[in-house]
UniProtKB/TrEMBL annotation:
Protein keywords: Heme, Iron, Metal-binding, Monooxygenase, Oxidoreductase
Species for this entry: Streptomyces cylindrosporus
Name of the featured protein: Cytochrome P450
Top-level taxon of origin: Bacteria
UniProt record similarity statement: Belongs to the cytochrome P450 family.
InterPro entries in UniProt: Cyt_P450, Cyt_P450_B, Cyt_P450_CS, Cyt_P450_sf
Pfam families documented for this protein: p450 (PF00067)
Length: 426
């Protein structure tokens, strides 16, 4: 790609369908390379990405989701912009959400979250996933063809988080009706893809969970919501109701769209590669590795942002204070210095679990075990209940001339819709 300097990664629609040649071009120039249109340092190298993720002394997460948009409220001048960040971080979008917090606030709020998704809770949640998946598949599979995201992946990921947080059965349909939405195709490439988290869905979640938590604090019951309502910070102090509500809303916001993209990428790959599908049907113990390779090759979160607080250097490149850095998980996961023949989809790849699809360091995705379990349950049940899954040519065109639409954001990577056909297993 010769003209890559002319390309505006944050606005160019052509990169939505296939961002990988652009990432290659950037890395070919330098694994830490400035993007001129929005003045962002793009980190496409694996080791360099890990370095940024692990250095919370030099980098703040205050812009983790929004990056160069909408800009910092004041000019970031001086040798150390930590104080300016502390003064103005509350004015930035999503400042009350975990991904944008820095230690020590992040440490406390993350600990609160980890008390809600304990190994025991995750185990119980996984047990109900099988039941949830089969319930949805009864309807989805019946016609022999259907759109996978609206028909299965969207409702499944929503119901799994509702179950994790103990949303009572009788309220789940209302959650589905309010939160289940069509992909944000109207949002435009400049969007961060976080519009799902804004306005009414987030307000709805805040309202719902405030009621739940207040009720359970007044009258504790034997249920998961009571556990949520009575969880404490690491020092034993009780959080404000709003702190707990935020954590619950965070889980819906961070866990749903991402997992939908993973599930749909996995199904697309399986439907496009009949031999691989046959292999997974006969050797089910390969499913976990298949999921990891999907996460590596089609990372649902293309990247996250960091803001440098002080002068530092990454991979030998100087980063001045106040620099917006984009750590590109998708690009690091295709760094040939780390993954041999990175463009090839190799279900037997030995070091695949080293991928950065879930990030690294203090913000590393706490939902990773959940997302992996959701993918495993989905694949196990779909492979069990069908004998052959195919791409619907009517929607995507014939093999060799397929048409796919991807979510038009610079943050997420994944399909807006995936139309499949299948033969049900006898
Ligand atoms: C395939 C699915 C998923 C992917 C690819 C993914 C990816 C990520 C990444 C890359 C981060 C780090 C962001 C940063 O460093 O700035 C993150 C953070 C987070 N994820 Fe996930 N995620 C997925 C599923 C989930 C699920 C299912 C949940 C919860 C139910 C979840 C909850 C969170 C939360 C709360 C954070 C913020 C953690 C923190 O800031 O300490 N994610 N995720």
């Amino acid at each position: 790609m010769d003209d890559f300097e002319a390309i505006d990664f944050f606005r160019d629609e052509a990169l939505v369908a296939d961002p990988y040649p652009y990432f290659e071009a950037l890395r070919g120039r330098c694994p830490v390379q400035r993007e001129n249109h929005h003045d962002v340092m793009m980190v496409t190298g694996y080791d360099e990405a890990v370095q940024v993720y692990n250095d919370t002394d030099a980098f703040s997460s205050c812009i983790s989701v929004t990056g160069p948009f909408p800009g910092f409220p004041v000019p970031l001048e001086g040798d150390d912009v930590s104080e300016l960040i502390a003064l103005h971080r509350d004015e930035l979008p999503m400042s009350d959400q975990l991904p944008t917090m820095d230690p020590p606030t992040h440490t406390d709020h993350r600990a609160l979250l980890m008390r809600l998704i304990t190994p025991k809770r995750l185990k119980e949640n996984e047990a109900s996933m099988w039941h949830l998946a089969d319930g949805l598949l009864d309807d989805y599979l019946a016609p022999g063809e259907g759109e996978f995201i609206g028909g299965f992946a969207g409702p499944f990921t929503l119901l799994v988080i509702a179950d994790l947080l103990g949303v009572p059965e009788e309220d789940r349909q209302e959650f589905m009706d309010t939160l289940q939405r069509r992909p944000a195709a109207e949002a435009g490439v400049g969007s961060t893809g976080d519009d799902t988290l804004h306005h009414s869905p987030l307000e709805y979640l805040y309202g719902r969970f405030t009621t739940y938590i207040e009720e359970r604090r007044r009258e504790p019951r034997e249920d998961v919501l009571t556990g949520l309502a009575t969880a404490t910070f690491p020092d034993g102090s009780p959080p404000e109701v709003i702190d707990v509500v935020r954590v619950a809303a965070n889980l819906f916001a961070a866990g749903q769209e991402t997992t939908v993209r993973l599930l749909s990428s996995a199904l697309k790959i399986l439907a496009e590669q009949p031999e691989l599908q046959r292999l997974l049907r006969t050797e089910r113990d390969r499913i976990p590795n298949f999921i990891e390779e999907t996460l590596r090759a089609e990372s649902p979160v293309k990247g996250d942002f960091r803001l440098s607080k002080v002068a530092t250097s990454v991979g030998g490149v100087d980063i001045p204070p106040g620099t917006t850095v984009m750590v590109l998980n998708s690009a690091a996961n295709r760094d040939p210095r780390q993954f041999e023949d990175p463009a090839a989809f190799d279900v037997g790849r030995a070091n695949v679990r080293r991928h950065l699809a879930f990030g690294r360091g203090v913000h590393t995705c706490p939902g990773a075990p959940l997302a992996r379990a959701e993918a495993r349950v989905t694949l196990e049940r779909l492979l069990e209940r069908t004998s052959d899954i195919r791409i619907a040519e009517r929607a995507h065109g014939p093999a060799g001339a397929r048409r796919y639409d991807y979510v038009p954001t610079f943050i997420l990577r994944g399909l807006t819709n995936l139309n499949l056909e299948w033969s049900e297993a006898r």
